[in-house]
Design goal:
alpha+beta, OB fold (Dihydrolipoamide Acetyltransferase, E2P), 4 domains, nucleotidyltransferase, ATP-binding, nucleotide-binding
Length: 612
C-alpha cells in the first residue's frame, strides 16, 4: 500500500478559560471524536492513523475512498459518529464496543472532519501559514460528505461562543493565522476552549458494584503521570456516567489485568479496590481539578480511549504560588497554603474553600444571623483541632460580629457568617466544621428550631437511626410540625423542625418528653440516657441539643472525618429507603451534585410552627 508518511499531530494548549481575541486569530468548532490523520495515495489507497500512531483503517473502513482526489494527501482531523446533525461521542464509544465484538456497525455513520492539510501532491504544507493551508484544504475536490472540512470562523468571540454552545459543539479552538504546523508539539499557537471539561486518565483499579450493579464495575480508580517525578499518581475516582452494558464491558476488560498491589508508588487509602495493570486509558468529564493535588472532582465516565497510551496521560504542572489575593464579592482576601492537605484522602484547603464557595447559596441562609462556632483543623484531620467561638484578633475589620454573654467568661465576640466573603475567610482558617445554635441574634437564646440528634450506639448504624427518624416524623407531623432530616456528616442523623415559642426551655422539654416516650415503648432499640454504657445496640435520642447554650453542626457543613463528608439534608424517601450505612454518606462532591439537582432540601426549616 502506497500512502504518504504519517505526521504526528500538532496539539493545542488549554486557554485557561480566556479565549484569545483579535484579527490574528481564526476559530474552529471543537468536535467530540477520535483525532486521526487520513492518508491517501495517488491510486486511492487509504490509511487512517490515530493520534498515537495506531492503525484505525480496519475499524473505520467506511471512510476508505472518501478522500480519493487523484493525488496523494494527508489530512488532519477528527473521526466522529454523525447523528441528527452533530457529532455524538457516546455513539462513537458504542460503535467501538460493537466493532470489538465483531458486530455490525452500519447503523453508526462515521465522518472524517478535516481541519488541516499537511501534504498534497507530494509536497509538504507544514511550513505554510495556517491561512494558506486552509485555502488549499478548501480547494480540495472531495468526492462526498463522508469527509467534510471544519469551517474556520471569524467575528466577535462572544458571538462565536454563544453560537457554538447553542449548536451543541464541544467548544472552540483558536489558531494563529500565521502559525506553522508543528508535528507532535503542543503549542500556544493553538488554544482550545472546551465547554465541557474533560481529562484523559489511566485506569488503575475498580470497585465492585453493589445493589443493582452487583457483579459488574461500580466505579474506577484513576491515575495520571506526574511530569516532575514521572510517577503514576492517584487523581480521583469515577462512579457515574456508565450504563449497564459499559459496566459489564469494563468488568470483562479488567478481568485479565488484575494485580495484587496498587500501581501507585504512593497508594491511596482505598478500601475494597481491586487493582489492575495501568495499561488502559479512559476519558472523564469533571467539574474542576484541585489546584494542589490535581484531583478530579465531580467526575463522570465518557469511555475508554484505545487511541491513547498511558504515557500520554500527564497531569498539569502544579502552580508554584501558595499565597494568593482574591476578590470575593466586595472584599479582598488573602488565601494561603491552598495546596495543604486537610483530609487523609488528599482533599486540600483549596478544595475546602472551593466547596464552601459553591455551596454558599444553600448554606448561608442557615448561618445568617446565628453566631458561628468554628471547629478548626489547622494541621488537617488527624492533627490538633479546637473549637473557636471568639472571632479572634486576626479577624478582618469588615467581618460582622456580635458580643453575647457567656457563662464561662462574661462575653464572647462571635463571628456572623452573613455572606460569601466571611465564609471564604473562615474556610481559609481551616474551619472545616461550622456549628450554630437553634436561635438567631434577633431573639437571643429563644429557639426557632427544634432538633433531635440521633446518635447510633455500638452495634448500630444510621440505618437504625432512620427507623427512629421515621417514628419522629409521624410524631412531629401529628403535632402540626414540619420535620426535615439531615445526616450529621458523621455516623448519625438529625431531625429538625421550624418552631415558634416564647419559652427558651420549651423545646428541650418537648424533645425530652418524646425521647422518653420512645424509650418506654422500645427500650431495646432506643435510649434517652446520655451514659455511653446504656447505648450498646441502641439509638441515643439526644434531646439536650435544644438547650439554648448548645450548638449543632450546620447543614452543608463539612466534618472532620477521614473523607470530606458533609452534614447533608435528605428527603424522607431517602430515609425510608436506607438499608445500608453507605446509603446516607455524602462527600463534598456529592453535596454539590445534590444541590444542583434538588436545591435546598433544608429550606422548610425556615417555616415557623407553634410548638405544642
Amino acid at each position: 500500500m502506497s500512502v504518504p508518511a504519517w505526521v504526528a499531530p500538532m496539539l493545542a494548549v488549554d486557554d485557561g478559560g480566556r479565549l484569545p481575541v483579535g484579527e490574528a486569530w481564526a476559530y474552529e468548532y471543537k468536535f467530540d471524536g477520535y483525532r486521526a490523520a487520513l492518508r491517501v495515495g495517488v491510486g486511492g489507497d487509504t490509511v487512517l492513523t490515530s493520534r498515537n500512531g495506531l492503525d484505525f483503517t480496519g475499524e473505520f473502513r467506511a471512510l476508505v475512498g472518501a478522500a480519493e482526489v487523484g493525488r496523494d494527501l494527508v489530512l488532519d482531523g477528527e473521526i466522529v459518529v454523525w447523528r441528527d446533525g452533530r457529532a455524538d461521542f457516546e455513539l462513537l464509544q458504542e460503535r467501538r464496543g460493537r466493532f470489538r465484538k465483531g458486530k455490525s456497525v452500519e447503523e453508526f455513520p462515521v465522518r472524517f472532519l478535516a481541519f488541516d492539510l499537511l501534504a498534497f501532491g507530494g509536497t509538504s504544507s507544514l511550513d505554510l501559514p495556517y491561512d494558506e493551508r486552509r485555502r488549499l484544504l478548501l480547494d480540495l475536490p472531495l468526492p462526498d460528505d463522508r469527509v467534510a472540512v471544519v469551517p474556520a470562523l471569524s467575528g466577535p468571540v462572544e458571538d462565536l461562543l454563544d453560537r457554538a454552545a447553542a449548536e451543541g459543539y464541544e467548544g472552540l479552538v483558536a489558531k494563529r493565522r500565521d502559525s506553522r504546523y508543528l508535528p507532535g508539539k503542543r503549542s500556544d499557537d493553538w488554544r482550545k476552549h472546551p465547554f465541557t471539561r474533560t481529562a484523559e486518565v489511566v485506569v488503575c483499579g475498580w470497585h465492585p458494584g453493589r445493589g443493582s450493579f452487583a457483579g459488574v464495575v461500580g466505579g474506577l480508580v484513576l491515575g495520571a503521570y506526574d511530569p516532575a517525578s514521572g510517577d503514576l499518581v492517584h487523581v480521583g475516582d469515577v462512579g457515574t456516567g456508565f450504563d449497564t452494558r459499559e459496566r459489564a464491558r469494563l468488568r470483562d476488560r479488567l478481568a485479565g489485568l488484575e494485580r495484587a498491589t496498587p500501581p501507585f508508588p504512593v497508594p491511596p487509602a482505598d478500601r475494597g479496590a481491586r487493582w489492575v495493570e495501568p495499561v488502559l486509558v479512559g476519558e472523564v468529564r469533571f467539574r474542576h481539578r484541585t489546584r494542589g493535588a490535581g484531583r478530579l472532582r465531580g467526575t463522570s465516565w465518557r469511555g475508554l480511549r484505545d487511541d491513547r497510551t498511558p504515557d500520554e496521560v500527564i497531569m498539569p504542572s502544579k502552580p508554584a504560588e501558595t499565597r494568593v489575593t482574591v476578590r470575593v464579592g466586595d472584599r479582598t482576601l488573602k488565601l494561603s497554603n491552598l495546596d495543604k492537605t486537610l483530609y487523609p484522602d488528599g482533599f486540600t484547603k483549596g478544595e475546602v474553600i472551593d466547596y464552601y464557595s459553591r455551596v454558599a447559596p444553600f448554606l448561608l441562609p442557615h448561618l445568617r444571623g446565628r453566631p458561628v462556632t468554628f471547629l478548626r483543623f489547622p494541621e488537617g484531620v488527624g492533627g490538633e483541632n479546637f473549637f473557636q467561638r471568639n472571632a479572634g484578633e486576626g479577624a478582618p475589620d469588615w467581618l460582622t460580629t456580635v458580643v453575647l454573654p457567656s457563662d464561662a467568661s462574661g462575653t464572647v465576640e462571635h463571628a456572623l457568617v452573613d455572606g460569601l466573603p466571611a465564609l471564604v475567610w473562615a474556610a481559609n482558617l481551616a474551619a472545616l466544621e461550622l456549628h450554630v445554635p437553634q436561635w438567631t441574634v434577633d431573639d437571643v437564646r429563644l429557639p426557632d428550631r427544634l432538633v433531635f440528634d440521633l446518635d447510633p450506639g455500638p452495634d448500630t448504624t444510621v440505618v437504625e437511626c432512620c427507623r427512629v427518624a421515621e417514628r419522629l416524623h409521624a410524631e412531629l407531623t401529628a403535632d402540626g410540625l414540619v420535620p426535615v432530616a439531615k445526616t450529621s456528616g458523621s455516623k448519625g442523623l438529625q431531625v429538625y423542625a421550624g418552631i415558634r415559642t416564647a419559652d427558651p426551655m420549651a423545646p428541650t422539654a418537648y424533645a425530652k418528653a418524646i425521647a422518653g416516650k420512645f424509650t418506654a415503648a422500645t427500650p431495646r432499640q432506643v435510649t434517652a440516657t446520655m451514659a455511653k454504657a446504656q447505648r450498646k445496640g441502641k439509638v441515643f435520642i439526644d434531646w439536650s441539643q435544644n438547650n439554648p447554650a448548645k450548638t449543632t453542626v450546620a447543614p452543608y457543613s463539612l466534618r472532620g472525618r477521614a473523607e470530606p463528608t458533609a452534614s447533608t439534608p435528605v428527603t424522607w424517601d431517602e430515609v425510608h429507603a436506607c438499608r445500608d450505612p453507605e446509603d446516607l454518606v455524602f462527600t463534598a462532591d456529592d453535596v454539590l451534585d445534590r444541590v444542583a439537582e434538588h436545591g435546598d432540601l433544608f429550606a422548610a426549616v425556615a417555616g415557623r410552627t407553634a410548638l405544642p
